[in-house]
Amino acid sequence: MEMADLDTPNTELHPVTLPFGATIFQTRRGQGISHDAAFVVEILRSELQNTPLRVLELGSGNGIISIMLAHYFPSWHILGIEIQPHLATLAQENAVAAGVSASFVQGDLRHWNQSPAWDVIFANPPYYPRQEGRISPVEERAISRHEICCTMVDVLDAAQRNLHPETGTAYLLYPASRLTELQKAGKKIDLHTVAEFILGPKQKEKVLVKLMRKTRC
To answer: Are β-strands 54-58 and 77-82 bridged in parallel, bridged antiparallel, or unpaired?
Structure first.
């Protein structure tokens, strides 16, 4: 497969084979695919069913999570938004290569508000505040790891704003060290933690948090 010119300095691509045999691509100098993606897919597969749902991913990167979910749940309508234009293009091309119907667009989650509302929203967002740790000199990697283009509050606000008011459920993946911060920020906008799914050894755990409005808890 030949990928389109992505018009960015970090577009050398590396193939990734998915569990169902399809091959997609990631940028070599960007944020590499980790166990986090497989973990999110595993939990959502255990939580949800292959019934028609509108599903939104906030910050899709190269599209791997949405693409895998689109394979396992072909009845879902899946849209991923990604702030970095070259990654939104790459994700769309990856979806075509994988033979799934997920769609990807360039957009800023801080201003995203599309009707009708979404049944499920999920995100594997930047984990670290700008002031924490060393920020990568590679822009793509820096934006993926640190809260340069969006904060935890921005992600929560985007989820709350776009979720279906009666049926909406959000799943957000963060380091376990930020769980209390996430819960407090969520309550302020009526998104309450109803379940937690833990990944990794105790020193570096991550937690996928399931959030709903209080009327649904």
So the answer is: parallel
Give the residue carrying structure tokens 């998915």: 18
H-helix segments, the chain: 35-47, 64-72, 85-98, 139-145, 152-162, 179-188
Cα(89)–Cα(129) distance, integer angstroms = 27
Question: CA 82, CA 179: separation in Å to the nearest integer?
Answer: 24
Which candidate, 182, 163, 186, 161, places its Cα nearest to that of 173?
A: 182
Q: What is the identity of the amino acid at 217?
A: C
For Cα atoms 101, 15, 18, give the angle at the middle one, nearest 5 degrees.
Answer: 50
Contact 146, 128 (CB under 8 A): yes
pLDDT tens column, 58-86: 999 999 999 999 999 999 999 999 999 99
Residue that has been written with the tokens 């693409």 in this structure: 67
pLDDT of residue 216: 63
Q: Which fold has domain 13-216?
A: Rossmann fold (3.40.50)
Please state the pTM of the whole predicted model.
Answer: 0.92
Region of poorest pLDDT, from 57-71, 112-126, 130-144, 155-169: 130-144
